[in-house]
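User: Structure please.
Assistant: Input sequence and predicted structure:
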Amino acid sequence: QVQLVESGGGLVQPGGSLRLSCAASGSIFSFFVMGWYRQAPGKQRELVASISRGSGSSTNYADSVKGRFTISRDNAKNTAFLQMHSLKPEDTAVYYCNAKLLDDKVYWGQGTQVTVSS
């Protein structure tokens, strides 16, 4: 059973930065495709960014965050990160970590709240 625990959310002013972390356990982390999703009130959950297995040489971003967010992974620490810069009020949401295994099973974290407000 894979467990994902997010941390790093909080309240930040527009233009500020936050770094989210997702600590994984229960299987071989380097085998996971990792993703960050977010869900704002009244909206569907959407993909923010994803990173490939292994070294993470391939990344993918939603158009709305390109150039501002960076996804990365540290396989030695079984952790994925989402570095967020130039945050906007529209980035306010619950952010969820997602892991997809080799057998296509998907696991989710519990979510961490990010609020961008002055």
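The chain has a mean pLDDT of 96.
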